[in-house]
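chain below, 300 aa
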Amino acid sequence: MRVFVTGATGFIGSAVVQELIKAGHQVLGLARSDASAQALVTAGAEVLHGDLQDLDSLRSGAAVTDGIIHCGFIHDFSRFKEICEIDRAAITAMGGELKATNKPIIVCSGVLLLEPGRLNTEMDTVNFDSNAFPRVASEEAVQALLSQGVRGMVVRLSPTVHGKGDHGFIPYIIETARQTGVSAYIGDGQNHWPAIHRLDAATLFRLALEKGLAGDVFHGVTEQGVPIRKVAEVIGKHLNLPVVSKSTEEAATHFTWMAHFLATDCLASSEITKQKLGWQPEHPGLIADLDNDYYFEKHN
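prediction:
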């Protein structure tokens, strides 16, 4: 298949590109800069210049390929609702080119949208809309496409997709520890985050593309829930810092915007995903991966 990938040079998207090419697919990657374009060429992919707000380029990429993996997202939490609506528009534009074609479009979402404090499966739905939490816009966009006969699917990723080159939540927590002189968790630290290695995520996206059906929801989860205290302990060990508890009030100052996410108790299963796709994760878990020195190199 010739596959259109957005976010194709990002942490997850670049692994998806490599996985697709290794499996014999051709890739058309979206690039907003010359450096990104060169990275795609080096990886063996074709280049489409544009970005997530250039709807014409997105439509053209969708029209000339056999399927879409949408990994792109603008990570600007200062204007979160606006960014989520940009994502909705991008999904709608690309999906509009797939009507009556049976070509797949696979869209990223997150398990953090699901009910806290219990084990969520792929059968569970998000129980609020984008007015309550803007990130739901992406799943709403897929639902709208399904009603138009588009073969849309959702991959809900773990809050931490880890591996070498990670620049997401975990590096932020590490940098916060460096700056404050303590490795902290909130309360008793027994709340959980699911986790997945980026290379296992890449395999999941490929299998969803090849085998997924309209309306499928997959969970990018290899560990159902890692206690946040364990994360703090590994960070404290590597940075030689004390590991301490913060109250909810203290956490708001200590972690700033991250405090809300870090306090969440999220548990999620991927058993249905494994059964449907034959997906078998094989890369290290979060704690083992976090024990690598590359997470603590200064450029992270």
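The mean pLDDT is 96. Residues 2-158+197-222 form a domain with the Rossmann fold fold (CATH 3.40.50.720).
thats it, cya
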